Amino acid sequence: MRPIIGLHSLLLFAALAHAQSSDPLVKALELSDLYNWADSEPWFEQAKLSAGSDSRKALYAEIGLIRATMERRVLPQISEWLANQLNNNPLLASDDELRLFALTVKGDIDFEIDSRPARLDWEAALAIAERTNNTKWIRRAKTELGFVSFVEGDVGRSLQAVLGGMAAAKQANDVGAQIRYLGALGTGLTMTKSHQAGLDRINEALVVEAQNQPQAGYNFPAREGKFMALLGLKRNEEAYTLAAEIITKARSLQKRVKECQVLLLLARHFRSENNSQQAQAYLAQARELAEAGGFTRFLADIYNMLALASIDKGDRISAVDFAMRAAQNTQASGDLYLLPDRLLSVARQQIALGQTDKAISAFETAEDAANLVLAWATKVQTRTALVSTLTELYRAHFKFYAQRGDVERAFRVLESSRARTTREVIANETIGDER
After folding, report:
1. Distance between CA atoms of residues 123 and 108, nearest Å
2. Using CA atoms, how far apart are residues 326 and 229, in angstroms rounded to an integer?
3. Any idea what DSSP says for residue 73?
4. Whose CA is closest to 325, among 301, 341, 289, 309?
5. Are 111 and 118 in contact (CB under 8 A)?
6. CB 435 within 8 Å of CB 391
7. Distance of CA 342 to CAs 50, 292, 371, Å?
């Protein structure tokens, strides 16, 4: 009889395993856990259709489907929907696991719009993970907050968080996080001109991805970083081939954020190569996608590049319009450390057009923005970059008044500059003492 009992047990376990693996929500969550949102989409769709009266499963599937298809949606609208659900849906108030999932999805979406709500999302997610002792999401949330620190200008804190997250992911065999963080670290190194070191890290990420196929899917961010590294190493033909592959894949999956990002990278590259025709062609495509999807951070970059292109053509009226749009979208995205420089660009174009009152307002707003960021920036390298921008602002602002014979205002700007320099020396000494 024992063999029969053993066979029955095996069949029972096999049936249970099949039932679990055939649950579309389980499959969708497995793929999303690897950050393979593209392949998770049909499974979330199936889970939503099969949920029936199971409201928890239906909401889980709905939120997952939103994340899987975010590139095809208007981001501010789905962020608002998620905020409403988090604030008002009883299921999300009482179910920590589901609420954590919703916060991670909202965090990803908000990060494409504005770093400020994204930080709040990930801090809330971290709080739930710590309360429920969810070690995986404690690691992941802390690393995501590191990404937020990067766009806020705190590069040192960001690097520390990503390096710590990567080491922890390897130790825990968290495959999805390894791919994501290795790719992010490689991209960060590339952005600091360490192109070969960046490429090496990205290739590590792609090796982990290849070892975990087909579940791991196609990682766009790592390949975008590789594209930048190849350009930095002057391996242009390889870079163009990779860019074409990424765009083709993004279009086939309707990943509009990913497509927009590569188009913007191509536009920036061809501008640096003095190929304005190619740059404008890619920029036009990126702008169409960004405006349709409400990709605020991309729009800030796109309008800034259009302002520069208008200056090159001598079209100062268009230049000031685009520069103003760049500043507005920069402020809306929460990337405040970029705002002073973009407002300085606005002021310069307004001066050229004789719009003196508007230029004064732009100078003052730019200085206020720089001082605001300096108030919370704790890392010396971040503060140094901002002080450099602020010094250029004060110089341009002083020159503006001096050339018009407004001695009183010119010296007021000069005194503000001296006061800021003195405060900064003291602040940097304090930060140095705390290290």
Report:
1. 13
2. 26
3. S
4. 301
5. yes
6. no
7. 50, 23, 15
- H/E segment holding residue 378: none
**Residue 51 to residue 34: CA distance in whole angstroms:** 23
- Distance in angstroms (rounded) separating the CA atoms of residues 61 and 43: 9
Q: What's the start-to-end Cα distance of the chain, in Å?
A: 71
Structure tokens at 242: 């990779």
**Residue 20 pLDDT:** 46
Place of tokens 């053993």: 6
For each successive 10 residues of the chain (435 residues), what is the average pLDDT?
Answer: 38 39 89 94 96 96 95 85 97 96 96 88 98 97 93 83 92 95 91 93 97 95 95 96 96 90 94 92 95 88 86 81 83 72 80 83 75 60 62 80 80 68 48 43
Q: Supply the pLDDT for residue 153.
A: 75
Tokens standing for 220?
Answer: 């766009």
The torsion angle over the Cα atoms of residues 204, 210, 216 and 220, rounded to 10 degrees, is 60
User: Alpha-carbon torsion 213, 255, 144, 386, what sign?
Assistant: positive
For 316-340, letters b (16+ CB in 10 Å) and e give bebbbbbbbbbbbbbbbbbbbbbbb
Tokens of 91: 């299921």
User: By C-alpha distance, which of 303, 310, 302 is closest to 324?
Assistant: 303
- b/e string for 364-387 if b means 16 or more Cβ within 10 A? ebbbebbeebbeebebeebbebbb
Side-chain-side CA neighbours of residue 55 (13 Å): 5
Assess contact for 363 and 371: CB atoms under 8 A.
no
> Is the pTM of the predicted complex or chain greater than 0.90?
no
CB atoms closer than 10 angstroms to residue 178: 23
* Sign of the torsion formed by the C-alpha atoms of 399, 403, 404 and 408: positive
- Give the burial class of 245: count Cβ atoms within 10 A of its Cβ; 0-12 exposed, 13-18 middle, 19 or more buried: middle
Residues in the chain: 435
Tell me the residue type at 12: L
Per-residue confidence (pLDDT) for residue 6, from 0 to 100: 42
Tokens describing residue 412: 């007021």
